[in-house]
UniProtKB/TrEMBL annotation:
<dbReference type="InterPro" id="IPR014777">
    <property type="entry name" value="4pyrrole_Mease_sub1"/>
</dbReference>
<keyword id="KW-0489">Methyltransferase</keyword>
<keyword id="KW-0963">Cytoplasm</keyword>
<dbReference type="InterPro" id="IPR018063">
    <property type="entry name" value="SAM_MeTrfase_RsmI_CS"/>
</dbReference>
<comment type="similarity">
    <text>Belongs to the methyltransferase superfamily. RsmI family.</text>
</comment>
<comment type="function">
    <text>Catalyzes the 2'-O-methylation of the ribose of cytidine 1402 (C1402) in 16S rRNA.</text>
</comment>
<dbReference type="InterPro" id="IPR014776">
    <property type="entry name" value="4pyrrole_Mease_sub2"/>
</dbReference>
<protein>
    <recommendedName>
        <fullName>Ribosomal RNA small subunit methyltransferase I</fullName>
        <ecNumber>2.1.1.198</ecNumber>
    </recommendedName>
</protein>
<dbReference type="InterPro" id="IPR008189">
    <property type="entry name" value="rRNA_ssu_MeTfrase_I"/>
</dbReference>
<dbReference type="GO" id="GO:0005737">
    <property type="term" value="C:cytoplasm"/>
</dbReference>
<dbReference type="GO" id="GO:0070677">
    <property type="term" value="F:rRNA (cytosine-2'-O-)-methyltransferase activity"/>
</dbReference>
<feature type="domain" description="Tetrapyrrole methylase">
    <location>
        <begin position="4"/>
        <end position="202"/>
    </location>
</feature>
<keyword id="KW-0698">rRNA processing</keyword>
<keyword id="KW-0949">S-adenosyl-L-methionine</keyword>
<dbReference type="InterPro" id="IPR035996">
    <property type="entry name" value="4pyrrol_Methylase_sf"/>
</dbReference>
<dbReference type="Pfam" id="PF00590">
    <property type="entry name" value="TP_methylase"/>
</dbReference>
<dbReference type="InterPro" id="IPR000878">
    <property type="entry name" value="4pyrrol_Mease"/>
</dbReference>
Length: 245
């Protein structure tokens, strides 16, 4: 069988690609890309010319079959997404699972991801953290997720699009209170910026026209047991008395 390489690509600055990743892209038989037009720009920049096939959320199922077939006929394949690590809020899970099941070798390459890049300069604790990707859009699922996040002690990493940024900040404020937050904007690009503040200030700062790409780094819940008790709502108090007889 051929090898399936999982190949990270730059999240903005085209120089953020490893020598190994470039060599793999030069040497594989096929590159499977989330958006071939996007990936062509990267390949042109590095004078790489390769057969490209598209692999995105809408053709993931059928394309997985084609790629597995190619791997079985000894072709090597590199999977890339538009930016950063494939499979991190990006397509690829289906393909990787199938490859593992079929006994095909899967080789991941290290490289950039917006989550880690934002986290390490955020000023928030990097000792323990969790990655939540995009919050669910569905109202009910979103509320459930926000409830879950509320008591999370670890630093929380979220992705958000410019269009939904302020709405998401507002939802976070409503359910978590005025937490500390760092917003990393346009990482590795000319207008890279870190806004280190609170949810309330961030809402003020970003209301109006919002452009760019954003990672949200939220402080974990550091409430003491006593504060937790004092902050319980009346409903929670009643539930407590009812459940403890
Ligand atoms: N696979 C990518 C990774 O490893 O980071 C993430 C893909 S996800 C579809 C796209 C989201 O990642 C954006 O909406 C934004 O939240 C974040 N992102 C990607 N590039 C970024 C950048 N240069 N600056 C800030 N956030 C970025």
């Amino acid at each position: 069988y051929g090898i399936l390489y999982l190949c990270p690509t730059p999240i903005g600055n085209l120089e953020d690609i490893t020598i190994r990743a470039l060599n793999i892209l030069k040497n594989v038989d096929i590159i499977a890309a989330e958006d071939t037009r996007h990936t062509i720009k990267l390949l042109n920049h590095y004078n790489i010319s390769k057969p490209l096939i598209s692999y995105h959320e809408h053709n993931e199922k059928t394309r997985t079959d084609d790629i597995i077939q190619a791997l079985k006929s000894k072709k090597s394949v590199a999977l890339v997404s538009d930016a950063g690590m494939p499979l991190i809020s990006d397509p690829g899970q289906e393909l990787v699972n199938r490859a593992i099941n079929e006994g095909i070798k899967v080789v991941p390459l290290p490289g950039p991801s917006a989550a880690f890049t934002a986290l390490i300069a955020s000023g928030m604790s990097t000792e323990r953290f969790c990655f939540e990707g995009f919050l669910p859009e569905n109202k009910k699922e979103r509320r459930k997720k926000l409830d879950e996040i509320k008591s999370e002690k670890r630093t929380i990493i979220l992705y958000e699009s410019p269009h939904h940024l302020v709405k998401t900040l507002q939802d976070l404020l409503n359910s978590l209170g005025n937490r500390k937050i760092t917003i990393a904007r346009e990482l590795t690009k000319v207008h890279e910026e870190f806004f280190r503040s609170t949810l309330e200030d961030a809402i003020q700062h970003f209301s109006g026209e919002v452009k760019g790409e954003f990672v949200l780094i939220l402080d974990g819940n550091h409430e003491s047991a006593e504060e937790k008790w004092n902050n319980l709502s009346i409903k929670d108090h009643i539930n407590f008395y009812v459940s403890s007889g």
